[in-house]
Amino acid sequence: MIPTNISVEHILKAVEKIDSFGVPDHRISTKYVLIFNGKQYPPKYVLSIGNTFANGCELEPYEFSGGIEANGFLRRLGFVVIDGSSDTIYSESSEEAIKSFHKTVVNAYLTAKKECNYTASVFIQLIAERGALKVAKEFLAGNNPTTGFEKLWEKGRLDLTIEASVLLPQFKVLFTIEERSASFNRLKNYGYVVQDVLLNESLSNELISQRFNKSEHNGFSYFSELDDGEVLKTFNDFKKQFHDYNKRSPHEIWEFKISKKKYILAIRDEDEEKHFSITFLQMQGERSTRSAAYEYFTTKYGEHFFKTINRITICSYNPDRKVPLVSRYYSIADFLSFIPKSFYDAHQTKDINDIQLDIEGEMWENEMRKEGAVSNYYGKRYERDPKNRARAIMINGLSCKDCL
C-alpha cells in the first residue's frame, strides 16, 4: 500500500534523484510511464524513491502494486501517466487523435463509475451524440464548471474530468492554447494542479524544462551536489538569506553557485518566492540564470515588462568569496547586457514593426497632415508628422535613456 503522506514535492525530489542516478535495470517500466520535463520515468520506481523523502526508506516493489494503484496515486497528485506501449503523442490533428481522445474520456467515465460510484448519465449521452472533442470544447467555452466536474471534485477525483484529459500531452494538437489554459485554470481553481503543463508556446527550448515552483518551508528541489556536507551548509545559508533577507524590492533574481558551471536560480517576485528545479551552466549568456530570469518575467508580465521598470535587483551567492552574498541594483540596460542579444531582439523587432504599421496607418489616414497642425476633438492635440516620428525612432530607438 502506498503511504498517503507522499506529496508532490516528494515526487519532484524523486525525479531529480533519478535524473542524477538513473533507474536500475530491474525497475524499468515495461508499460506505463510518468511524463515530466519531456522525459519518461517508471511510475512505480518514482513512488519508491518518493517514499525515501516522505518516510525515510525506499518502498520495495512487493509493498504496493503498479498499474491502477501507482498510476492512480500519481494522477491524483496531478502527474501525467500514460501507457508508453499504446498511447501515441500526436504531432497533428487527425481522425485517429480525435478517436483516441474520445476513448480516453469514455475510459475516465467508466473509472469514475467503478471507483467513485458516480454515473454521469447525461454526460455520457452527450459524448455519444456529439463526440468527446466537441463536448470538451463546449464545456471549456463556458465560464462555470459542470455539475459533473463539481461531483468529481467532491470525490477528490478531478483527474477523471474531461478538463484533465484535455491537458494530456498526446492531445495537445486538438486544442488551442486558450482552451488548454481554461482547462488548467479551472482545475487549479479547485485545488488540482496538473504538473509540467506548458501553456505558453513562446518559451524557448531551454525553458520548456523549467518548472516555476512556489517555495514553501524552504522547499527547494533536490540536487545531488547537496549530498556534500560543505556544499549543503552554504546552500542552507543561501536559503535562509533568500527567505529572510530584508532589503526587499519588487523583483529580485537570486543565484547560488554550486560548483563550476552549475548554478541554482530563485526569484522573489512581488509577494511570491519561486525557484527553478534544474541547474544552469553560468550566470550570464546562453543557458544562464539571467537569461532564464528574463524569460520568466516576460512570460509572466508580457514582452514589455522591462520597459515598465527602471532597475532590477540581483543577489549572487558565491561560497568562494569572503563575503558570499553580494546584492546589487542594476539598470535595465546593464541587466540586458548579461543575456544573449537574441533573447530580446525578437521583442524589439516586433515593437518596431508594430510602430511602423501604426505610422503607415497615420499616413494613410491623412497624407496632407502637417507638422504642428491642431486638431479639435474633445480638447486640443498637437499632431506629429508620421515621417518625423519614424526618423526620430531610427535615430533614438525605442527606449528612453533617462528611464534606464
Features:
404 residues; 4 domains; six-stranded mixed β-sheet; three-stranded antiparallel β-sheet; 11 strands; 45% helix; globular
Topology:
Layout: H1 8-21, E1 32-36, E2 39-41, H2 43-55, H3 68-76, E3 80-83, H4 95-115, H5 121-130, H6 132-141, H7 147-154, H8 162-166, H9 177-189, H10 205-208, E4 213-214, H11 229-244, E5 251-259, E6 262-269, E7 272-275, H12 289-301, H13 305-308, E8 311-317, E9 325-331, H14 332-336, H15 341-365, E10 374-376, E11 380-382, H16 386-396
Parallel strand pairs: 5-8
Antiparallel strand pairs: 1-2, 1-3, 4-7, 5-6, 6-7, 8-9, 10-11
Main beta sheet: strand number and arrangement? 6 strands, mixed
As a whole number of angstroms, the C-alpha radius of gyration is 26 Å
Based on helices, strands and strand pairing, what is the structural class?
alpha+beta
Give the mean pLDDT.
78
- The order of strands across the largest sheet is 4-7-6-5-8-9
In total, the number of strands is: 11
Helix content: 40-55%
Low-confidence stretches: 199-219, 346-352, 377-381
Gap between N and C termini, in Å?
59 Å
Count of helical regions:
16
Please give the domain count: 4
Written as H for each helix and E for each strand, in order along the chain, the element string is HEEHHEHHHHHHHEHEEEHHEEHHEEH
Strand content: 5-15%
Globally, the shape reads globular
